[in-house]
Amino acid sequence: MQSAAGSRPVQLLPIDIHYDKLLDWLIDRRHCTVKWPEAQQQIRNKIEAAVKDMPDEDEMARLVRSSSLNYFHCKRIVELLKVSEAGTKNIFGMYSSKRMSDWTDIVSCYNDKKVYLAECAQTLIRTVNFEVPAFKQQIKRAQQQLRDCERKQSEYTGTAAQHQQRYTQECRKMNIEGENIKLELLHQVKDLPQIYQKLCVGVESLAEPLEYYQEVVDFLLSQQAQGGQFPAVEMCPLLRHILRNGNTTVYQWKTGQVPQVVEEDDWLSRRLAELSSAATGSAPTASEDTGIDFGTAAAAPVGAEGEGGIDFGEGFSMDAIDFSAGAAEQTDLADIDFGDLVLDDSTGALAAGADTATDDVAEINFDIVIEETGAASEEGVHTAKGEDALTVLACPWTRDLFVNELKELEAFLLQRHAELSKNATDILSVTMLQSAPFFMQVQTEETVGRMLAEVQRLLLLWHDERTQHLIKICSSPRALDRLADSLRRILQLADKMRQKASSMESRQKELAQLQRDTEPKLLSAIAHAKDLQGKIQEEISLLYKNRKVNIMGEINNL
User: Fold this and answer.
1) Rounded to an integer, what distance in angstroms lies between the CA atom of residue 42 and that of residue 31?
2) Which of 117, 199, 329, 539 has the highest CB neighbour number within 10 Å of its CB?
3) Residue 66, C-beta contacts closer than 8 angstroms, at least 6 positions apart
């Protein structure tokens, strides 16, 4: 029989079937029936009953445990049972073994109406369309997540290193190690006197700018007064005081007298002791907490013997005192010496002497003198207490005055520098300065610029970040907590980033393990599909007198 083209016999033409249409092709050509799923379900029930009684043979056990047990596996089990159940074969060539009869019946049911072909076609379609793509997608997703985790781990590690570096830099700025932040910061407060001393040394270089400022103000006031009297105004008095006397106490700044006794509150030592006790876990004693010694013995009752009692001398007894209500009436008031007071015999009342009462009342001085903080005591000792015991750079309001005067001097020099740079050839300015003091006339743009640089250098030293933090710690107890918390937050961010990096590393291990577990499943599914493809092609080829059968489609690209 020739083909339509007449070139090749029909037996030599291959049969090409698309894998996705394989089941429909088998049903259309009546190799299988539409009701094959019902027969397949009956066969599956028989297989479930048959696998419960199987011999302990490696290959047979592996076939039975297979999740994709099909017709070809059943045929292989029958072949193995022919060997293992050979002793049950009778003279008629039949097997009396129930195992053999069960599996033989299963294979027969599969062959009836070619149910095995429909089942294998369905398994092939499901494997190619769903199982293999699912495994591939799972591996692809795991690889993508693995790359994302590697990227995030790198980012988290870099961010943690940045926060750690920032924490180290902040600690280096504060000159601390960062082990016990509060305690180390309080130890740094001890450096404030040295910082104040540097500022005082810097103020010594402001003698010329202060003199120049004072000369200009005096000259302008004299011009305004037009030769008359004008009030003397001292510019930047605190800077001049520090220039003359250094970083003195507020008491000396206010009174002009050096205090002989300075009662300064040693809050730093107490705070250091508290933090040291908290770090070591030991609680301070009652005397360390309050600084008040209440003694070791309890107060004894009045008249009690021993420590704490009142000593009234030898031979005295509390029993000799009558505290009853009538005892006072029996007392002879005439035996009591009331000084200038006279006892009225008629009334029993006390009256002042006629010759002295008026004079004594007239001599009473009711003036009340309130002694202010830091004033001299009765012995003439000048004592600085409280705020007056602080230095002018340690006291908050004098410290603010110090900064304000520096900025005032800076603003003046900036203005003068701008005026000198613009009015170098201004004849009117030159004429006005002819009557000015010589010190004002010799100042140029360059000299004023040098003065301005000195003031700005001192302001830069004052506004140093470490200096400002230490001053805030001295000014407010909460400043220490805020600064320590801000440093801890940086360290906590670094720890948080490290934890996230560690979690990403753990996730990478999980994804890598998932990929390793999925790849064998994918290979197994592909191998199973290829095996089914080959066997189905052979079975269909037998139905068409060994014509070549090709199952086409995506299955060939696995």
Assistant:
1) 19
2) 117
3) 73
Q: Which residue has the tokens 């180390």?
A: 184
What are 102-140's pLDDT values in tens digits? 999 999 999 999 999 999 999 999 999 999 999 999 999
Please write the tens of the pLDDT for every residue from 403-447. 999 999 999 999 888 888 876 555 555 556 666 777 777 788 889
Does residue 251 contact residue 389 with C-beta atoms inside 8 Å?
yes
- Residue 55 tokens read as 């011999």
pTM listed for this prediction:
0.61
In the chain, the largest separation of any two C-alpha atoms, in whole Å, equals: 171
In terms of DSSP bridges, do strands 341-343 and 350-352 run parallel, antiparallel, or are they unpaired? Answer: antiparallel
Which whole-number Å values give the CA distances from 314 to 310, 317, 318, 358, in the listed order? 12, 9, 12, 43
Residue-level pLDDT at 7: 59
Which pairs count as long-range contacts for 212-220, CB under 8 Å and 24+ apart, including other chains?
A: 212/439, 212/440, 212/443, 212/448, 212/451, 213/409, 213/412, 213/413, 215/436, 215/437, 215/439, 215/440, 216/412, 216/416, 216/440, 219/436, 219/437, 219/440
Q: Say how far apart CA 397 and CA 51 lie, in whole Å.
A: 97
Residue-level pLDDT at 354: 40
pLDDT at 504 over 60: yes
How many Å apart are CA 374 and CA 393, to the nearest integer? 18
Q: Which of 32, 48, 20 is nearest to 115 (CA)?
A: 32
- Residue with the larger pLDDT of the pair 231 and 552: 552
Residue 18 has φ and ψ, to the nearest 5°, of: -75, 135
Give the residue among 531, 518, 542, 514 at the shortest CA–CA distance from 68. 531
The angle that helices 465-475 and 477-543 make with each other, rounded to 10 degrees, is 120
CA 510 to chain centre: 29
| 3-class secondary structure per residue, 468-514 | HHHHHHHHCHHHHHHHHHHHHHHHHHHHHHHHHHHHHHHHHHHHHHH
Helix (H, G, I), strand (E, B) or coil at 547: coil
- Tokens read off for 398: 């004098």
Token code pair at residue 531: 């095996």
* Gyration radius (Cα) of the chain, Å: 55
